[in-house]
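Because discrete structure vocabularies remain unfamiliar, it helps to consider an illustrative case, giving the amino acid sequence and backbone structure tokens:
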Amino acid sequence: MPYTQNDRPQILEGLQTEQQIEIRKFQKEDIRSVVGINRICLPENYPDQFFLGLHYHAPDAFIVAESKGEDELCGYIMCRIERGLSSFGKLPTKKGHIVSVAVKPECRNQGIGSALIEAAMEGMVEYGASEFFLEVRETNKDAISVYENLGFEIKRTLKGYYRDGEDALLMVKKHQPEE
């Protein structure tokens, strides 16, 4: 279900959940909830200003999932746009970097993470990204599976990438424009 860039939130129906989930752009008022989800779900925690800085530079690629029944956020994704050599050739290009994505444990396995990633990729394309990349813990098999199902491929292992010394997998995907 595509995310539209006209600021209208999208209600996801047909997910494996009994509640309605709204996929929408992050708003500054969401910062406490997003930081809370980050702290619950990930060992990599960031200060508020990091989140707000990413939102400032790429607001169309900072997306949240809100449970409409409880008016509570259940997940987020934040991204940035970078310039560099293509992962699929030797030419310079704009790349969409998925910096952080998290879904609360009680909201997982319902398609919310995939919906967030798809919406963020559409947002990154609006900024000219022709490919996407992310780093994921080598032991995070569930996340790796989600990324592979969305067409990401493992490019290489980044040894000792995380602060605790764990390796990361660099995963990449080329944007396939719809015809």
Summary: The longest helix spans residues 112-126. The CA atoms of residues 42 and 137 lie 11 Å apart. The first strand starts at residue 10 and ends at 12. Helices lie at 31-41, 48-57, 112-126, 141-149.
